[in-house]
Amino acid sequence: MTALENPAPAPAPKTPAREAPARAERSVAARLASGAAGGALRVFLLLVALFWLVPTFGLLVSSFRDPTDIATSGWWKVFSTPARLTAKSYESLLENDDITGALFNTVWITVPSTLLVVLIGAMAGYAFAWLDFKGRDWWFMVVVGLLVVPVQVALIPLSGLFRDLGIFGDIIGVVLFHVGFGLPFAIFLLRNFFAEIPRELLEAARLDGAGEVRLFATVVLPLAAPALASLGIFQFLWVWNDMLVALVFSSSDSQPLTVALQQQVRQFGSNIEILAPGAFISMVIPLAVFFAFQRQFVSGVMAGAVK
Prior knowledge:
Number of helices: 14
Largest sheet: none
Distance between the termini: 67 Å
Strand content: under 5%
């Protein structure tokens, strides 16, 4: 009998019952390993977060301590004498016209600077991404080149220009400076984001009769909400915490909170009760803005990472 007449029996296929124990054993081990690694990472990140929050917590505690206690002992002593906490420092802060006026000046500087950068940057980014005009690529290269220009280079030239225009020392001068130096990054960021929008979506809107303004307002801006929120957070934090530009271009009537606190530091011995609550308020407001928009911020970062 030939081999063709009596073929060798084929090997029996592996049944799911035979493979299940091996798969179960591997999956359990993998789950244990990944769980241990993930748990260690979470513990490490938690420790880093707590370590980062220690100065913030110390500043909060100091803002509720008596000026004498601040000058003679560290903030951690509050755990042994919690009854000595008081809100008198915040009362003194609210009674200080220089600090309260500087807080309002900070708002009047930061909010317009942020809104103008986001709005103008969005319009310019859309133009560079989807509108055809002469020298578009060259103009965009100029915008990219402006990203490397340091702020210090423009302090003296713009001081003379603002003085000639009569806005040196006014809030509008500080706002214009922040807008001018915030636009290159805004245009670069939003142009790259807008360029990833499918062309078919824009063409469909144009076929429905949408003009460029309507297309930008009803289609592009809603899609770019995460990127706009991320840009707004960056711009807000930069302007709110700025002291160099405000120190040069603001006066005593238009100085923001950072400059006002810096002026108070010179008189540290006589107004120590003002510094701690003022510094905490200056820090907690941008933190509140960030946590309020953190979901949009993360969405914008993830969208940029995926694209």
